[in-house]
Amino acid sequence: MTLFRLDASILPATSASRALGDLVEQEWSAAHPESSIVRRDLAAEPISATAWQAAVTAGFVPETERSEAQRDAATLATTLADELISADALLFTVPLYNFGVSQHFKTWFDVAYTDSRIDPEGTALNGKPATLVTVLGGNYGPGTPKDGWDHSTAWLRRVLEDVWGLDLRVVERPFTLVGVNPALDAFSDMAAELKQQAEADASRSGRELAALRTERAAA
Predict the structure, then answer these.
(1) What mean pLDDT is predicted for residues 8-33?
(2) pLDDT confidence of residue 198
């Protein structure tokens, strides 16, 4: 049994998204102690921004006529898709950066998406249990001054839940910059409550992932 975990934070030592991901992983491992964890760290091993173009154009060229970059990109796309398909459950930790999707995650997704097994016509990932952990430096919820400025979470849900068909649960923690940015000091109590709630959600999600995988295996 295998859990695939992808981390996109560029600051591993202080990453709030990775810390929540650890809670999900701990619950998974507690339920499946013999399972393996396949990891892809996009900060330690970022995927080149040129890989997507090479992977896409490789599809229009006979294998014998592909450039070295196209061959390498096509091989990488197969590897990325294999990691997703072979796993029993998936965990993604992806922070909001500059009000949008992490470029590391977007590049990873775009390259993986060129593999026909996980494009819209494919069914290889349908129903696979997954958790998305996302964190936001501010608070962009309804009624806040920057309501609607989070252009990441909705897109992440769309591609993971609707395009790939994952059985997705989402753990979200806003206000991670409280305590870092003095302008947000007034929200310390709220941020502490949101952190506590996100940690509880992460642990619960880990238990749900483990239980769903057990149910699928028994079906």
Answers:
(1) 96
(2) 98
